[in-house]
């Protein structure tokens, strides 16, 4: 028994240094892991979230209210605080630029937002920018940023179709995906993007085609890619000129000329066209039927305005396809511009931006082909 006890003591004595060494190793590993985590956190890409309001910042009376709610209620700090997962994706800071529903955006808001995006893009410590935005005019704001902010850093617009208070709200995942895209190196150089419903779209092509479904945003030429469990999958790249390839620079634009849209339909009267002409607008985008058709009773009014110096852009209210020059109307004869595949609201944006450079219709048509 005495020998057995001595043997046990010897075994414990021999084991203690090993256990101590293991404990020290574990402590060292823990410290190293903590240091590595700190390094990784410090090395995270910095994404600035510019909040402008919209449904993603909205709130309903109950969880059942997914389509009836008040937009632009939740500040950016609260949006980010409710999504702690973003801190694993990037180092995120937020700014409240506006707190409005996007249907209330004007040219003034476009200019203010674009100038702030441009300022941030010039900062060495900013790697990407996310703009939270109401969905009603997000495609227009995105296209404007695509045209005038000269940076290769990711600019990502995001919104939601349901307020955060609703059952199955889509805003949190949309925002997380948008921040992930903005933080990723592979989104650089692709211009302004819209991330909605797990899809990555170029802001140039995307349009809101449904008003109460989460899959509301569609590009007729297809999305650029998808986000699945935080990983980007790319399938194509934008071809049209944008951002660093653009001849337009928000730093040189202080105001936008007046451009309005005249919507066409069966039995349309020339009243709107006449009123717009009398108001002194610089350009009228005619949202025609089919291939940008213009009713015979409207043609004389538009040609008269064109002869007096108002730029006429012939577009289509049809959500897909593109307007062919000199088809349906003799555009060369009338000196009109065709909008190509841009919908009327985006044609308005491009016309306004282009008119800050030129009023020559041949130059304007070139711009519509290239952008």
From TrEMBL:
Example of a GO MF term: asparaginase activity
Domain L-asparaginase N-terminal: 46-237
GO BP, sorted A to Z: asparagine metabolic process
SMART domains: Asparaginase
Residue ranges of domain Asparaginase/glutaminase C-terminal in the record: 259-368
Protein name: Asparaginase
UniProt-annotated catalytic positions: 55, 135
Family membership: Belongs to the asparaginase 1 family.
Record key words, sorted: Hydrolase, Signal
Binding site for substrate: 102, 135-136
Signal peptide residues on this chain, from the entry's feature table: 1-23
